[in-house]
Automatic annotation (TrEMBL):
GO terms for cellular component: membrane. The keyword tRNA processing does not apply. Residues 562-588 are annotated as: Disordered. This is Major facilitator superfamily (MFS) profile domain-containing protein. The keyword Transmembrane applies. It is found in: Membrane. Its main location: membrane.
Length: 588
């Protein structure tokens, strides 16, 4: 009988004076940036092999079009993000116009002498920005977000778990089907507003949520990137995906505004979005190579089958409850098996909380932020001004992720590792080592920027100050890429999808709680204390900043495939230190 796998929660004692990283053979020498060359000048895949990253060997001998790389995802993910970003302002304005038409129609029924300026779909309709309409829009958009959030809370984690066993690309393609259905319903509501009631947009949200929505697309894309990338390069590579996201968010509104100006109708935007979703479906489903080799998928299927057999042996009556429990994926954040430690669990929970806040705020603040900006009591922006504002913030995030983050990674991670390699004369392998000091301080810096920007939103009394505050929050774009890359460094590669599935569940839950908090607060305080939403925003970022102080560097779950006796005692944290110390002594 084969010996069971063992896991060890490892904490390193001896640290590099620059990075705070352990002087351990698992450090990487080839964490490059997209703008700066690698140490030995090789490409990513060659660098991964040279550094001893074992996943690169899974695709040896295959033609280039069958070798997975995050580069395959950049174009389709950009299209996916552009569709998502391009619909934010037009869809919100469509909802405002539809709700406004209904409001004025109801007023006319109550008072036949009531007069109003006709509402033109897609045009600037200042008559619609009255407290009654804004409250109705806030409640309706909250209902849409709740619908998507509740349903994606079920589906996104399942997609993450299933993708570990059956591959990433299948479920990435599946996630776009909901977007296609949602755009078709939106087109019908916009084209036939007198026939198709805007409440049908709730059905569009149901279709979107059942396929995991943007949450599933994000976690599956990050899982794909993690499969293709050595751990120490992961923050930079996931940063590229986030840069594609924000580039899409920047370009999408501009193209949407151009289409509206050129065609004179909002419908053209939604037709274009439908084409984007269809392109993503076919490109990811039929062109992008799978990132998990058949060997790794079969191994994950075998481990899952063994786990199911174990559950059956313990008692079958609990199985239905386990399947129905929507919170079951969160167990990935609280490992209790052999070798896990309190430090590991604390790291995972703290980082998951930070990610939940960052993602939840990003998904929840957009609607009320635009309503605040477009109100006559503040800046009175229209579709063009709002689109430019979103585009500006997105371009700032792109610059941070494609220029600043790789430069920081090169200066503080690549160069020290290169000096250490020259000093020892040995190329060291790349492996999961948990968060290092650089990861933690990047998170803290990003969250401080978010706190300052949110406070600026609250105190701004001039458009220029408000826009500058928005740019400060955009600088916090470092946080999203860093926290997700850091999370994947804590677990073995075959558990990345499961872990990010749990993160997807938390993001979906934040999509439920976030709109309730922000939209309800805005609906209650509109006209009296409109900036209350920014006070809440700053408070959440402060909570995330405090959580970073709970994260301990270089704690991770080590996957050991070597034979071990069944009576092997649990490895404790001190034993992990001793193992690392022995490796250092041997290498010296």
């Amino acid at each position: 009988m084969p010996a069971p796998k063992t896991y060890a929660a490892v904490v390193a004692d001896e640290q590099d004076p620059v990075l705070g990283s352990p002087l351990n053979p698992a450090n990487n020498l080839n964490a490059t940036s997209p703008f700066l060359p690698s140490i030995d000048g090789d490409n990513d895949e060659q660098g991964a092999r040279a550094a001893g990253w074992d996943a690169a060997a899974d695709f040896d001998g295959l033609p280039w079009w069958q070798v997975p790389s995050v580069t395959w995802l950049l174009v389709p993910f950009f299209i996916f993000a552009m569709a998502f970003g391009g619909m934010i302002v037009p869809k919100l304005n469509l909802i405002v116009d539809l709700v406004c038409r209904k409001h004025f129609a109801d007023e006319t029924l109550l008072d036949p002498n009531f007069t109003f300026i006709p509402v033109v779909l897609g045009a600037d309709n200042p008559q619609c920005f009255i407290p009654e309409v804004k409250k109705s829009v806030s409640v309706f958009t909250m209902a849409i977000n709740l619908t998507v959030g509740i349903l994606s809370a079920f589906t996104a984690p399942k997609f993450g778990q299933l993708s570990d066993r059956y591959g990433r690309t299948k479920f990435l393609a599946l996630a776009s089907i909901g977007g296609i259905s949602a755009e078709i319903i939106t087109i019908l509501c916009a084209k036939y507003p007198d026939v198709v009631h805007y409440n049908w947009l709730i059905l569009a949200a149901v279709c979107d949520g059942l396929t995991g929505s943007f949450t599933a697309g994000g976690i599956l894309s990050n899982s794909y990137a993690s499969d293709c990338t050595p751990p120490s390069k992961r923050a930079v590579v996931i940063g590229r995906l986030h840069a594609c996201l924000f580039t899409g968010l920047a370009v999408g509104p501009l193209l949407a505004g151009f289409l509206v100006a050129a065609t004179g109708t909002l419908l053209s935007v939604f037709y274009a979005l439908l084409i984007c979703h269809i392109f993503f479906l076919f490109f990811v489903g039929f062109v992008v190579p799978e990132s998990l080799s058949q060997q790794r998928r079969l191994r994950a299927q075998k481990e899952h089958a063994e786990k199911q057999d174990d559950h059956s042996a313990r008692g079958t009556w609990l199985a239905p409850l386990h399947v129905a429990n929507v919170l079951a994926p969160l167990k990935a954040l609280w490992p209790t098996k052999a070798g896990s430690s309190p430090a590991l669990r604390r790291n995972l929970v703290a980082l998951a909380t930070i990610d939940m806040i960052i993602a939840g705020v990003a998904m929840s603040i957009g609607t009320v932020l635009l309503l605040y900006c477009e109100s006559d009591d503040t800046w009175g922006w229209g579709t063009v001004e709002s689109s430019r504002f979103i585009s500006l913030l997105s371009w700032v995030r792109v610059f941070v992720l494609l220029a600043i983050l790789p430069a920081i990674n090169y200066i503080f991670r690549v160069r020290p590792n290169a000096r250490r390699a020259r000093a020892t004369g040995t190329a060291v392998p790349d492996a999961n080592q948990g968060a290092d000091t650089l990861d933690i301080w990047l998170l803290r810096t990003a969250l401080v920027s978010d706190i300052l920007g949110s406070t600026g939103y609250m105190l701004a009394r001039h458009e220029g100050v408000f826009v500058f505050a928005g740019m400060l929050t955009a600088m916090g774009g470092l946080g999203g890429a860093t926290v997700q890359a850091t999370l994947t460094k804590h677990v073995p590669s075959q558990q990345v999808g499961q872990l990010l599935g749990a993160i997807g569940l938390l993001q979906a839950l934040s999509r439920i709680v976030g709109p309730i908090a922000f939209n309800s607060l805005y609906a209650v305080t509109v006209g009296s204390f409109d900036t209350a939403i920014f006070a809440l925003l700053a408070s959440l970022f402060l909570l995330a900043f405090l959580a970073t102080w709970l994260v301990r560097p270089h704690v991770y779950l080590k996957h050991d495939e070597e034979p071990a006796g069944e009576d092997e005692p649990l490895l404790q944290e001190q034993r992990g230190r001793s193992a690392v110390g022995s490796q250092v002594a041997a290498s010296g």
